[in-house]
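User: quick one - fold this with fe (ii) ion bound?
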Amino acid sequence: MTLSLKKEKSAELTYLSGFGNHHHSEALPGALPVGQNSPQKAPYDLYAEQLNGSSFLAARHENLRSWLYRIKPSVVHGKYEPYSLDNFLSRPFDKSNLSPEQLRWDPLPETNETLTFLEGIVTVAGNGSDSSVRGSAIHLYSFSRAMGNQYFTNSDGELLIVPQAGDLHIKSEFGSLVLGPWEIAVIPRGIKFAIDPINNKSGDITRGYILENYGPPLKLPHLGPIGSNGLANPRDFLAPSAAFTDEEGHFELITKFEGKFFKSALKHNPCDVVAWHGNYYPYKYDTRYFCVINSVSFDHPDPSIFTVLTSPSELPGVSNIDFVIFPPRWLVAENSFRPPYYHRNLMSEYMGLIAGVYDAKQGGKGGFVPGGGSLHNCMIAHGPDGDTFEKASETNLTPVKLENTLAFMFESSLVYVPTKAALDAAFVQGNYQNCWANLKSRFKK
Ligand SMILES: [Fe+2]
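Assistant: Sure. Structure tokens for the protein plus fe (ii) ion:
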């Protein structure tokens, strides 16, 4: 695939490049104060507001904060009133129907209702407890309507958005991001934003996956002996440039707080930040820039070799969440069974498919399709289906390129508890285990 080095997705947007960089951006010249030369009033008589994404005492290299220079401070809003989003669920997750069974789902069916991004979110599974900064939830989204004057902010966690079909316009306090399939975006905790579909014609599908991370913010994994380059490189992460709307009217802010939703009225557009600087902001990444590292001799590395982002836990080496992708790549290993091996492991794995065919699930016609998902929880056996094993164990091991395919995993050290809605859904596959039923004994004495 030929990729343009030009980072702008659209002519109207410019992005700031680099993961975790301390960016600075102003939509009007001179809107960012320089030093403390004008301590009493910010330029343009803007309000200064700090947004902290880490505790104040976090080590310097983990301290996350941005300064926003805005037309009105965030504290100007109406009273919080209860609001409901019936399918957007949160911790604690009800374990009464939990079983170790492997699960797989077809894509979220389209609905005749015209839903907004928030209304179109359906929670599939989650873990963690209210008492700790730990765990995550997995949601699907499918929607067709813009959010209008409604904006959203989440106190409970950051959102990793993985589009599968349709482009998105993410309007945030920090500026805009345009996002499409094969890209991902992260919206940190507490940032105000709205998501609208782009060029949504009748019949278009806008859908994808969301990981809501309750734990420490996602960051790039350490590379160890890989060295200073490879996997997701910092320069390919893009943040929005400052952009503001100076508009009064009727606006609504939906706040997710401890799993409950609240609405509050605003008399101004909350995307009123004229300038900002700091290292806490929304960002996006194009997975087509991922530098794949893999075996060039024999055997099969663990899926951790494909980690894009990780959220650590309090235990060294045990992630709260790993976000892992399986992108297009050459398979060249010799004397090796090339699709992923059969395994049972500590981490619980939710897998989704953005495009193409996943190399371990080629059989079973239509079993694991783009937009679908599977769940293999802690120590529960899984691996290639019977048809794939038959084919892969007989094939000629010449170099093969996997093209036009992108699968991913949300991998957690906590067990994912499926929601009742996901277990009872019409799109859950009741016959998933059948894909392994034809694995006969091949033992020869
Ligand atoms: Fe696995």
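One thing worth noting: Residues 343, 349, 376, 382 surround fe (ii) ion (CB under 6 Å).
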